[in-house]
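Archive transcription. Copying these from loose printouts into the bound notebook so they stop getting lost. Printout 1 of 2:
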Amino acid sequence: MANKTLSGKTALVTGSTSGIGLGIARSLAAEGANVLLNGFGDSQQIEQLQADLAKEFGVQVAYHNADMTKPAEIEAMINFAGDKFGGVDVLVNNAGIQYVANVDEFPVEKWDAIIAINLTSAFHTSRLVLPRMRKNNWGRIINLASTHGLVASAGKSAYVAAKHGLLGLTKANALETATTGITVNAICPGFVLTPLVQKQVDDRAAKDGISNEQAKKALLADKQPSGEFVTPEELGALAVFLCSDAAKQVRGVAWNMDGGWVAQ
């Protein structure tokens, strides 16, 4: 076990019952971290997921169903991590939702929900885990932003605003912890084939009367020069690097993994 870089550490990954969050949780578990999952889904499937991860990686896996729009529930989840594991050493703020409409047609409640989940929740989790990280003089906070934290797309004002805000939070938090053993960084994925993006593909296929495969290619052709999706496993490997000693002077970065999207 000694060669695993995160043995004895605990990782909380928000929005980790599927997609990117689950990919990152798996990668951290593979390095020996105990994992606290969070997210929505069928309770039996989540129980099975916990059991599978624990068995596959030989770590402890727990789950908390905190609604990331509710500060009191976020606090309850951090307290639960304290009771169960002694606290959080690696925080991955991944929970996110999306809605597409022009600003003048954007539903106010959708704006509020996106800002709450994609941005404000990261403020709450960070403020609550930092005291213990400071006491231990070790911690890793990784915020899952997006290429939309760096550039914009029409129709995604709330998401773009939240992800730009998340990069601002990352930088400020990195400066506040700069002289400590805590690092704070952001990962900015391009298109990843998550359930969220699959829905965009399905909608496009239906709208344009094309196959799912053609819709995927069209979606990527718009933005992602590599023509390939980023995978949750690739993002997980980057998260593991950011947790390692090799990355201890990587502070306040917005690291895009996007098939060349932002290079254009």
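Printout 2 of 2:
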Amino acid sequence: MLELARLSHVYGDHAAIAELSFTVDAGELACIVGPSGCGKSTLLRAIAGLLPPTSGSVLLHGSPVRGVPDDLAVVFQDYSRSLYPWLTVQSNVEFPLRGRVGRTERHDRARFALAQVGLAGAAHKHPQQLSGGMQQRVALARALAYRPALLLLDEPFASVDAQTRFELEDLLLRVHAEQGTTMLLVTHDIDESVYLGDRVLVLSASPARVLADLPVDLPRHRDQITTRESETFVELRSEVARLLRGVPVPVAT
């Protein structure tokens, strides 16, 4: 579904990303992890068509991305700034659908998406009446109601507490299993990348390059306790950590 070919972007004399190449198949949940400031957000903006790359290309469904694709949605880290405080939760979720679908379908899609994220009873509240975790659920519901072919998530759970983060991670896995939406999630959290991903793409320090593309050999159904305690999870987490820290991976004897 998504193909990046030697993608690079330079700000003045600073190279943020350098010749990044990878693909994401339809229905995958791929995670990108890298050190702070390595260019992860620049990468997402280029994929979303918000930032023309200096060189290289982004292909979605085999066609070059020039401008924001119609079938793409983004969930940002800062939920408090991505929701309109003067609109109700229902209206926030419906907002991107205005002018795209009729009023009845817009309403039905929003109600269904809110039910998916456990907020069916909050439709008529305003964002400031909700907790941070609930606001991020609204942001996710808005993206789901849009029904994108590709959903980009830019460190979507970084601004919530640990318990809420676990709940939102499990919510994302459940939605992915139910809808099969292709997702590309950027995070700085190694554990989160392994827990959520079908694959983990490990980036270098800026300018970002792909250090490794690691398949996650864990069952699709995951649990915050048993999955994280499993030998496979611990080994893969350690491999990602070593790559990020530049520590050689031990060779089996």
